[in-house]
Here is the input.
Amino acid sequence: MVGSGAAMARLRLQVRRVGPHFRTVLVSGETGTGKELVARALHGMSSAADGPFVVCSATTLDEAVASPIEHIVKMAYGGTLFFDEIGDLSVEAQTQLLRVMRRQEWGQRGLAAPQQKTELRMIASSGDDLRILASAGQFRPELYRQISMVEIAVPPLRERKEDIPELAMCFLASFAQENGRHVDRIADEAMKRLQAHRWPGNVREMENVLRDAVLQCEAMLLEAHHLPALAEETSSNTRENAMTRLQDVVEQHVLQVLKNCGGNKLRAAEVLGISRSTLYRMLDTCAGAME
Here is the structure.
């Protein structure tokens, strides 16, 4: 977990405190923020660090197996099971997982370390607000309560821009070595462009951008023209006004769609093609703008 800013310092402190003792942890955060890295750090600090770290997601569950959840849990015995984007699990899979957790008496002992070698620790990640999904009937409330007893929130990159130079240099060194390049510096203008970008895809987006930039760079200095994937952002009043007007249009459209759906937020999210948590964030922004 790269970054020396305040947000990352708090995150590392949480991991150090929780790592040695956890049974279940919910790691929340936007796509690309590094939730799996946090999960691996937690596993590495636990007494099960020498055991397996099994990654599972709803899209990789083997439907050919009669009880896929049981199968995955057995693979992770003595180690840590990481459920990536647990909110995407089917209701049936959620029920299976809840049954396993109850059988192993995970229940109300969120930080009590397991005593039997056949038990395991579980970390779940989610980019959606599981509390909202549970309230809407899209996620089992009992399962949400059990996995969210300990929660670690991973901040988006836009909220820790002070870490961008360090992250950029880390990626630069890694990709230069990986691809046999000699680039070892980033020009001031290129760094300004990296810091000005909003990074909607978070650290994963930056990783992809720097990988492509290193491949394009034949010299020792990575310059701004090696970053064509980034739209150069300026602070001019014209651009700011244009973005403000665009935001107004987006908010009006969201509110109109919600009205057309009779106030049904789940249906509105489907019509807009966005996740439920994204819609709720947009509605919060609209409400704040009208206050």
Q: What stands out?
A: The domain at 6-155 is CATH 3.40.50.300 (Rossmann fold). The CA atoms of residues 179 and 215 lie 7 Å apart. Strands lie at 24-28, 53-57, 80-84, 121-126, 151-153, 185-186, 221-222. The longest strand covers residues 121-126.
